[in-house]
Amino acid sequence: MNTHRAHARLAFRAGSFERGDRDLPAEVAVALSYNGSTHAVMLATPADLEDFARGFSLTEGIATPEEIESITAVELPLGIDLQIWLADGAAARQQARRRSMAGPVGCGLCGIESLEEAMRRPNPVPASDFRIPADEVLGAIAALENHQPLHDLTRAVHGTAFWTPEAGVIVAREDVGRHNAFDKLIGAVIAGAGDPARGAALLTCRCSTDIVQKATAAGIPVLIAISTPTSAAVRMAAQSGLTLIGLARHAGFEIFTHPERIIREDKADVA
User: Which among 73, 89, 232, 266 has the fewest CB atoms less than 10 Å away?
Assistant: First the structure.
C-alpha cells in the first residue's frame, strides 16, 4: 500500500481561492494477530510493518525478538493483517494478556482493562556509562529534521529516530500514530540497527507515560522530545532511571530527570 495519496483541495490564501492537490498520509487499519488470533487493531501508516510487529510485541510485553518465529503482512480489502507467529512460551504469555482493542492514532491505552495495567511500573534502565555532551543534544534534534520525508510531504505524521554520538541518526520511522512510530523505531533498533543502550530516541511528539514504558522496555536510556512531557511521564522516568528531555529545539532544551547522562561544562545543578 502507498504511504500517501494526493487529494484535490480548495485553498484560500491572500483573499482568493486556489484549486490544487495536497498529499495526505495513508491511514490503514492494521490488525496484529498472534498465532492466528487478533490481539489488537491499530490505525497506522502502511510502512515498516515488520518493525511495527517487533516493536509492539516487545513494548507490550508479548514477546522478545527471539520469540518471534515469523511475520507476514497480508493485505485485505479493509486493511492489513499482520500475522505474527510466536514460540510456545510467548504464545502462552500473549494469551494470558490478550485484549481486544481498536486504537485511534491519538490514544495508547485503548482496551486496557485496569488502572494497574495502564500505569504499570516500567522496567528499570540498565546502568551504563552512556553520556551525551549537551551541545550534541541540540545537534541530534536538528538532525531529525532531515529524516522525515513523509512529514515533509504531508505535514501530518509523527517522526522518531535513534541517534548515537558516534554515528548520528542511524534509523528513523514515521507514522500517523505517535505510538506506532515509536514501536516501528524500536522494532528497527532491536532488529539490529543499533544497540538500544548506547543511544537516544528522538521524538517529534509529546512524551507521555506509555512512551516512557516503551522506551524502558527496549532499554533506551535517553528520550529527547521537541514537546513537553506529562507530569506522570516525568515521575515514571525518574523511577525507572530514564533521562527525559523535553522542549528540545534549536535554542536549547530542558532536562526533567536523570541529568547525569548529559555532560555540562558549567556543572550546574537542575533545580
Answer: 266
What tens digit of pLDDT does each residue of 99-143 get?
Answer: 434 444 445 555 454 455 556 677 899 888 999 999 999 999 999
- Residues 94 and 156: their CA atoms lie apart, in Å, by 33
Q: In this structure, which long-range contacts are made by residues 91-99, counting pairs with CB atoms below 8 Å and at least 24 apart in sequence?
A: 91/34, 91/35, 93/61, 93/62, 93/63, 94/34, 94/35, 94/39, 94/62, 94/63, 95/37, 97/60, 97/61, 97/62, 98/37, 98/39, 99/39, 99/40
Q: Which residues of the chain have pLDDT under 50?
A: 99-106, 111, 113-114, 271
Say how far apart CA 100 and CA 119 lie, in whole Å: 19
pLDDT, tens digit, 9 for 90 and up, residues 49-76: 999 999 999 998 899 999 999 999 999 9
Detail the DSSP E strand segments found in the chain: 4-13, 16-25, 28-34, 37-44, 68-76, 79-86, 102-103, 132-133, 158-164, 168-175, 200-203, 222-225, 243-249, 252-257, 262-263
pTM: 0.89
Q: In the CATH scheme, what is the code of domain 28-118?
A: 3.10.20.10
CA dist 169 and 130 (Å) reads: 16
Domains 28-118 and 132-263 belong to one CATH topology: no
- In the chain, where are the structural domains located? 28-118, 132-263
Q: Which residues pair with 168 in a beta bridge?
A: 164
The CATH number given to 132-263 is 3.40.140.10
**Amino acid, res. 63:** A
